[in-house]
């Protein structure tokens, strides 16, 4: 029996995949690829044998060491499927001519990803044939450019996929809305659902996806159902992303196991019942024409800030845009919240210059004051926004703060005031990062640098870093 250590086995597998991709892309006929592979393996065998015998001679011993020159063809089907799944499906199918034992190996691939920009009839023919001959479970199915595929075909595929134990489904469009067939709701074992530009019309009998853990909807439209009902019907949901959406009423998210929530869209009100939420990202695209709902909430709470923020006791990471800060500031902003965010470590706040930046800053400051263990703070401040000195000095004393990143400061006085406050009040600070493409664009750029370098630093580890990257996180 041939025994091979894990490292050597991985090396041979990697050699095979590299050879296949390299010669395949150069146009070498695949029927000659097996010969190339066998020859290279024989060379490797001789090298291994020479090394083995050389080591044995030092001990006056000889050992027979033989390698099967075609051991790849005799690999277990499970291992072979794991190799082929790393290839594009078109290339995986082409491996069927490498060996008689490989003829149907590709039919065991658990992940089917179709990203081809080809004619509708050709794409439908290919997917129909793949699903017809597929033998193993299909755990992942990805289809881009659904607008090129007739609804009847997608409906047919989903019915088939539901019988294969499908767990990960992704439909992606680019600007064209596509009606998602009702057969989607027959895929009861889904764990990951990703739909872009889809019109979802759920049947009245829909009770949810009981195993769904990840839901990503981009540019979606709902018919006969609400996000509240969809989310409530997914008791195991851990990650929810809603982007490019318009919610004319109250956006209600009730998810007892939700850990990550990402919202980018337009809504008039927000109700969160997410006791386990750790990461929250909210960017309000625009205010509705009739304005935000600034009235009291249904439970009589006069401050949306209190109602929304108090529902996040375990939050660790918070990313919010200026319009959402304005939403939080509607009503009244208390000096002290009824909840302390002991777990909150990262905060990113975008000020866009179009909203009431004073209210936005006040709302953000209120969160900072109640996050005693904050370690990372990121701010984007557009050029037209000037943080007054009284706003800067009202920042709380942050004992655990380690990293501060700032993007967009144009006012030198504001930046110096902010830097002076942070450097003089953060004993654990390691880095103050200022993002600026060209420091010479600022008024008295060199003078600004000299003043910045001369500021007193409470932390001996604090460094001031200039970066041209606009990425804060």
Automatic annotation (TrEMBL):
SMART domains per record: FBD
Domain F-box: 69-119
UniProtKB keywords: Membrane, Transmembrane, Transmembrane helix
Protein name per Swiss-Prot or TrEMBL: F-box family protein
Pfam families documented for this protein: F-box, LRR_At5g56370
InterPro entries, sorted: F-box-like_dom_sf (IPR036047), F-box_dom (IPR001810), FBD (IPR006566), LRR_dom_sf (IPR032675), LRR_FXL15/At3g58940/PEG3-like (IPR055411)
Organism: Rhynchospora pubera
Signal peptide residue numbers: none
TM segment ranges: 9-30
